[in-house]
Design brief:
With 140 residues, the protein is α+β, with helices and mostly antiparallel strands. Helix content is 35%, strand content 34%. The protein is built from four helices and six strands; from the N terminus they run βαββαββααβ. It has a six-stranded mixed β-sheet with strand order 4-1-3-2-5-6, sandwiched between helices. The structure holds flavin mononucleotide.
């Protein structure tokens, strides 16, 4: 059974390039092995990530990620059963989120993923991907 999980969290301290590279490297090997795909969105003091895959694999990875001390306030926004992957071509892709991005501002002036509906959060991620991002992609 395929699922899509979306969570939001707050990085502890500044997000360095090294930290991001490490996460992407991990994703490249681990997610590929576990057949997990998705995107990681970072910026404006937030991380938002979508994980897609078999339910049990997604649960295992999510538990690992939750235990990671590089972030806090890890909050599950949604877990839905899906028939098709939306981000099937990437074991992980990185996109940047800026709350000052005119696109985000215009469509979602008060955007705060901790209070937004998962639908709005996913809509933002979709828009970010369509408009030039992602920056880095780790192909499956
Ligand atoms: C925001 C964030 C997203 C992450 N995403 C993934 C991921 O998609 N896949 C993965 O294997 N690790 C991911 N990690 C890393 C894991 O939390 C964890 O550090 C890693 O799986 C530990 O692997 P190790 O025990 O082999 O060192 C992420 C970490 C953070 C902070």
């Amino acid at each position: 059974m395929l699922v899509r999980l979306l969570y939001v969290s707050r990085p502890v301290g500044p997000v360095t390039t090294t930290m991001t590279s490490l996460i992407l490297e991990k994703s490249k090997s681990y997610n590929k092995k576990e057949n997990i795909t998705g995107i990681l969105c970072q910026g404006s003091g937030l991380w938002m990530q979508i994980l897609e895959g078999e339910r049990s694999q997604v649960n295992v990875l999510y538990s690992r990620i939750m235990a990671d001390r590089n972030h806090q306030n890890v909050e599950l926004l949604s877990l839905e059963e899906i028939t098709q992957r939306r981000f099937g071509e990437w074991s992980m892709a990185l996109v940047y989120l800026s709350k000052d991005d005119p696109l985000v501002k215009m469509a979602h002036p008060e955007f705060d993923p901790y209070s937004a509906s998962a639908k709005d959060a996913i809509a933002i991620l979709d828009e970010l991907i369509k408009t030039g991002s992602p920056i880095v992609t780790m192909e499956t």
